[in-house]
Amino acid sequence: MERDKEILVMKDIVKTFPGVKALKGVDLNVKYGEIHALMGENGAGKSTLMKCLIGIHPPTSGQIYFEGNLIENYSTSDALKMGIAMIHQELSPVEHRSIMENIWLGREPKTKLGLVDHKKMYEMTKDVLKLIDFNEDPKTLVASLTVANMQMIEIAKALSYNAKLIIMDEPTSALTNKEIEQLFSIMRRLRENGKSIIYISHKLDEIYEICDRITVYRDGQYIGDGDTKDINVNELIKMMVGREVNEMFPKVTCDIGDVKLEVKNLCYGRKFKDVSFDVKKGEILGIAGLVGAGRTEVIETIFGIREKSSGQIYVDGNEVRIKTPADAKQNKMALLTEDRRSTGIFPMLTVFQNVIIANIQKYIKKTGLLNHKKAIEDTNEFVKAISIKTPSIYQKVENLSGGNQQKVLVARWLLTNPEILFLDEPTRGIDVGAKAEIHRLITNLAGQGKSIIMVSSELPEVMGMSDRIVIMHEGKVTGILDNTKDLTQEEIMRYATGQAATA
Ligand SMILES: Nc1ncnc2c1ncn2[C@@H]1O[C@H](COP(=O)(O)OP(=O)(O)OP(=O)(O)O)[C@@H](O)[C@H]1O
Ligand SMILES: [Mg+2]
């Protein structure tokens, strides 16, 4: 293996879907032993290019050379055998099976009698897990693992195929900071062993921390590549978006009115205890904390997805009973969930259907029929307002890029015209340009007197947007701070890690 040589060359790759030219002739060169970032806005074509590479769908035209050889007409299992593995955006382990069964599924070692050799499989699994310092028992059921550990199993599986090139599509979007560090140290070790990694992420700090080189795409076109050290952040953003994005967090101070929502001593089992805060009209309230602090659970409880064990909720000063999300909607609340795949998006339905689904009532005429025209108009308006990239509103949502699916959900909830809007990680998986658009939208809503409660793990986002910040640590509110100029990330982290508490 020679480090400066290319393991992968993709040339002039075109990929068309009905009505969409997703890739318009793009290139990618990846060297042995490097971590190579693919960057670009939502819908730029990153995931599609990788799906072409691993044989999920063959390119419409173009050439792929792997280790110097032209490769054509191959399936995903052929790709694996050649040494190309992908850790998908959506993991799909067989949950009711053990770690070892997941790794060797379909190619289990056999005894002389042709039965599965469990003892051998156990040892083989121990060996691959050792490669990534993963100490779980091979017999552990995959269902009991965290997302981070399921990813580790996927990486182990890739190594079990002796993969030389591993693709990771937004692997850190559901990981804690500590888990991300673990993943990075494994990636560094793989690089030392001469493996190549293609890394997709919208988190710029990660790219600068871990990647050696970057290739940028925009609208299905190749824009450029280079060593990470030679491209500064502003240049990179400009390459991705095609313009400069200066206003990431357009904080405009708007009039803050009376208290809209108040929660008092809210408890939910052992997940969180005595949570109290209020949010005013026109206010953006950030909720910060580490993953697992109970932030999502708190807003889900207020919204009626979970039933509180005790505590009170007041809207406009009156106590309200919220037992189901329908009750919450009655009280003019809306919730954008963090886990869009399991609780939000209907992949088989169209953009149009996904957007209006929470708003059907609004479009039912006195005659009982749906006012299609108005619903279509509104959907088109939102698609435009937040730049959802889709050939039409009748496209199935599963065919949209990950970030654009998230935007569809944003549109759905904005259309309900809520007075209290809960946003759980609203910009996860969303590119820098669209992020700025969503931030602007949130700020506008606050300007119209809406109350916004936003959970975000990205401190710059919380600090850039919020008027006040509630900080949680292990199910308790440790502080409610005014977001003044002097507030630092370190200060918030002291509360989030339980080293400081005022509340
Ligand atoms: N199966 C499909 N059918 C139709 N269009 C598709 C299909 N898969 C992808 N596309 C379209 O191809 C384009 C590129 O999508 P892709 O998922 O590759 O973007 P991406 O760069 O990975 O974006 P993100 O950062 O949001 O994940 C998008 O316009 C998308 O709607
Ligand atoms: Mg993608």
Task: Give a structural overview.
The chain has a six-stranded mixed beta sheet, with helices on both faces. Strands 16-17-18-13-19-20 form a six-stranded mixed beta sheet, with helices on both faces. Strands 2-1-4-5 form a four-stranded antiparallel beta sheet, with helices on one face. It contains 17 helices and 20 strands. The chain is globular and about 70 Å long. It has helices at 46-53, 76-82, 99-104, 118-131, 147-160, 177-192, 204-210, 233-241, 295-302, 325-330, 340-343, 351-356, 372-385, 402-415, 432-447, 459-465, 489-496, and strands spanning 6-17, 20-31, 35-39, 61-66, 69-70, 84-87, 165-169, 196-200, 213-218, 221-227, 259-268, 272-280, 284-289, 310-315, 318-319, 333-336, 420-424, 451-455, 468-473, 476-482. Helix 13 packs across helix 14. The model has no long low-confidence stretch (mean pLDDT 89). Helices cover 33% and strands 25% of the residues. 43% of the residues are buried. Strand 17, helix 15 (432-447) and strand 18 (451-455) form a beta-alpha-beta unit. The chain is an alpha/beta fold and 503 residues long. It has three domains: 6-241, Rossmann fold (3-Layer(aba) Sandwich), CATH 3.40.50.300; 255-332 and 419-503, P-loop containing nucleotide triphosphate hydrolases (Rossmann fold, 3-Layer(aba) Sandwich), CATH 3.40.50; 340-417, no CATH class. The protein binds adenosine-5'-triphosphate and magnesium ion.
CATH class of the largest domain: Alpha Beta
* Quaternary state of the chains: single chain
The share of residues in helices is: 25-40%
- Name the overall outline: globular
Radius of gyration: 24 Å
Distance between the termini: 58 Å
Task: Tally the beta strands.
Answer: 20
Question: Which strand order does the major sheet show?
Answer: 6-7-8-3-9-10
- Which distinct ligands sit in these coordinates? adenosine-5'-triphosphate, magnesium ion
Low-confidence region ranges: none
Structural class: alpha/beta
Number of domains: 3
Question: What is the makeup of the main sheet?
Answer: 6 strands, mixed
CATH architecture descriptor of the largest domain: 3-Layer(aba) Sandwich
Q: What's the CATH topology label of the largest domain?
A: Rossmann fold
Give the full name of the CATH homologous superfamily of the largest domain: P-loop containing nucleotide triphosphate hydrolases
What portion of residues belong to β-strands?
A: 15-25%
Number of helices: 17
Mean pLDDT reading: 89
